[in-house]
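Work Package 4 report. The design task specified in the project plan requires that, given a folded chain encoded as structure tokens, an amino acid be chosen for each position. We show below one input record used in the internal validation round.
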């Protein structure tokens, strides 16, 4: 039988056990209200307090200054791929700039292109998305409306170690798969966003942090639902928001704050998990191939494959029989992938390394 504790899915990802337990109770009745969270009004005082606490927790965990608006949106990153250029580049004199480092950043370029002119400043497609660029090597137009990149590519297992230094071009990052997994300097960014189904909670809510200075760049005449100023004005409560998803997101933020000890602590845990798994794969290089080059390897998503494709189905069958789930690679590149999101514990990673060692002993 598959186990929640051995869920290595790329998304929706694993949730902490204590969060699952609280969520189960809340579906029946919230302790504070006696009503199911699934039936709580988004106009209630309870939900207003929930939104405020969720914002406060994010500010504390990441040290977010008050000049950044924290929004709870819908539509996932896919909607942001169109909404960002619509808001921030609609009347720009030069193209919006993108780094195309993997499947999802390539999709961001594709989604933005029908909205505004775009320019790809770096593209790893021809190399199979196995490495990342050096920020200093990229050439930017100083009047570009923004530079967009994805901090962690879930499909190929690539992760930027840092962001470029602040410059004249506003920096926007999709951090969907490594948000809250490590500290970062929010002051380098004009906007950061992340959909929830990796480290934040279940699908349905997208978190956005937007510097107030960016709001003046938004043109008039946008549909209200697609205008970030609408959501700022209404406090993320313009239309019926995903109450359940925001509730679970808030539970996850409490778990990270109170049980783990914050973002610095989870970064250390995540580094140990990734080191253990990459170490196991490198012990058996005759059997397994890691997709990403070493300096670009992600701490969140480890993409790899069996060098002998004939062993692929057998490995997955053994993993499922042992209780593992989510180890299939993304459909675009195949192979295998283990996602080490915050809620995946070190004991689960140890179990996975044991599976790899055992499989290698019999097939290596």
């Amino acid at each position: 039988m598959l186990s929640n504790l051995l869920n290595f899915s790329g998304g929706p990802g694993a949730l902490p056990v204590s969060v699952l337990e609280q969520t189960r109770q809340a579906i029946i009745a919230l302790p504070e209200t006696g009503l199911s969270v699934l039936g709580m009004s988004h106009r209630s005082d309870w939900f207003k307090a929930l939104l405020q606490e969720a914002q406060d927790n994010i500010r504390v965990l990441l040290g977010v200054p008050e000049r950044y608006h924290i929004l709870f949106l819908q539509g996932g990153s896919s909607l942001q791929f169109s909404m960002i250029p619509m808001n921030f580049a609609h009347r720009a004199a030069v193209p919006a700039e993108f780094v195309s480092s993997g499947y999802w950043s390539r999709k961001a370029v594709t989604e933005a292109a029908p909205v505004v002119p775009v320019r790809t400043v770096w593209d790893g497609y021809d190399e199979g998305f196995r490495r990342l660029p050096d920020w200093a090597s990229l050439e930017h137009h100083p009047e570009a409306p923004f530079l967009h990149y994805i901090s962690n590519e879930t499909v190929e297992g690539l992760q930027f170690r840092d962001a470029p230094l602040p410059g004249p071009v506003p920096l926007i990052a999709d951090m969907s798969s490594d948000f809250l997994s490590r500290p970062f300097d929010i002051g380098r960014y004009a906007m950061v966003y992340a959909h929830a189904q990796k480290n934040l909670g279940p699908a349905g809510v997208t978190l956005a942090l937007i510097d107030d200075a960016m709001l003046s760049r938004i043109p008039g005449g946008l549909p209200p639902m697609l205008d970030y100023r609408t959501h700022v004005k209404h406090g993320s409560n313009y239309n019926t928001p995903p109450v359940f998803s925001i509730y679970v997101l808030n539970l996850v933020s409490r778990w990270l704050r109170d049980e783990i000890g914050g973002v610095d602590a989870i970064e250390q845990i995540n580094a140990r998990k990734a080191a253990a798994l990459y170490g196991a794969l490198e012990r058996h290089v005759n059997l397994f191939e890691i997709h990403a080059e070493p300096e670009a390897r992600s701490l969140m998503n480890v993409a790899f494959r069996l060098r002998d494709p004939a062993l692929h189905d057998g490995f997955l069958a053994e993993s499922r029989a042992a209780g593992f789930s989510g180890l299939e690679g993304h459909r675009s590149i195949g192979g295998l992938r283990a996602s080490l999101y915050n809620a995946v514990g070190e004991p689960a990673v140890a179990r996975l390394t044991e599976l790899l060692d055992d499989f290698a002993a019999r097939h290596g």
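The chain has two domains: 17-259, 262-363. Validation will be extended to a larger panel in the next phase.
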